[in-house]
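tool_log.txt
---
The assistant was asked to compare two proteins side by side. It first ran the structure predictor on the initial sequence, then on the second. Raw inputs and outputs are pasted verbatim so the downstream comparison step can read them without reformatting.
(1)
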Amino acid sequence: MNIGTIFRLQIIEVKRQLSSELIGIDDGKYLIVKMPPLHTMDNVSNLLVTGNEIAVKYMYKGKIFGFESTILDLIHKPFRLVFIKYPEKIDSFDFRGNKRVECFLPAHIKIAEYVITGSITDISRAGCLFALEIHDNKASVNLFELNNEVSVAFHLPGIEEELGIEAKQRSVKKHTDHTSIGIEFLQIDSSVQTKLFEFLSKAEA
């Protein structure tokens, strides 16, 4: 991990994830991150306290890393910072190692207040490629900002219900007649994960 790395913090007691930025490291002792913005901490700010356990995920050079730790301290002046115990163990997951399956799945994504209709053209256990027609202008305000938090909803063959996944926008590529958005899955409900993995297994993912 490097200074400036974006962390996804999850308080062990709840499923809610928060974004923060790593700004300091004392090897073997602690990490310092910016306190997540107040408007993102509805109903969880009271759990961001000294002693609580957290799970952290971040991406570095195409791999997803994760570890569990404990909040050591918080300060509010002159800056709002969180001190996290230096992890004893960091796990890594090869994001690029997840085989992608080409497909055409009706889908839509939600970025802020915008809902954008399109299709998923390939998908894996870790993410997908979402395509939309280039003239979908209502998405233009926020669509092309990397690291946008997005919600992805789609249908799998043979499954009537719509499946939803919390995710993050990782790449954007403009083509002549459409735009492709690379999406990394962040939080997948266990029932959705089971259905997705079964679909990928049948497709020899």
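(2)
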Amino acid sequence: AVPTAEQLTAVPHYFIQSHEVSSPLSAADYEKEALEKLEEQFLLHDTVIVCGGSGLYLQALATGLDPLPPADPEYREKLETILETEGVDTLAQRLKLIDPEKAAGMDLKNPRRVIRALEILHAGPIQVDKSTQKVRNFKVISLSLNLDREELYKRIDKRVEQMMETGLLDEVKNLLAWRESSALQTVGYRELFDHLDGIYTLEEAVEKIKQHTRNYAKRQLTWFRNKGEYNEVRNFEEALASIQAFMAKQEI
């Protein structure tokens, strides 16, 4: 959901409603554009906060991504056929069997991401030249917010209700023409598209959004924890203390 007008006024935000739904933004695209924005910001500020939920995109910005193998058209066609005839759950189950760790950190209801993950695994590992690995001219402290599970779920439910109250359904109706876009294969849009197709009542769709968001939050926490480079914090005070300790070390 888009931050409120008050939030956008209080703190400058970037990459909010900045790209067309019809133009996919890959992690590599984001890396390039976000690094350009960081260069601008570091001319004005010593410290910049990057906030987001997609671990892959955060990794792309902080350390860069390993090169990916090219797509195999025949294998892609096979996966697309399975998607069309059996659905994304069959593909997700295949991914879980091949690489449970990767599956644990993904939105398994997003067919485009599941298919690409299977393609990469199918291609096998590629040789990475260590001498060409990316170097960043800034230091990073990575924080992962890990609330009490009951509190987290309460906040998720409240956030979904706020999104509905502020017009999410109307937004989805206006995006029907682009419903196959990869940007819309995400929690919140999928369930309301299904509602508009008559699969769910509106109440059922809202409950599905809450449930799927809770599931996604659990996968995110697993992904961040498995990376091993994120400091878990439970509130603003712990986050601030971690940042201050990190910055104090940089000044020594």
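---
observation on (2): The radius of gyration is 20 Å. The mean pLDDT is 88.
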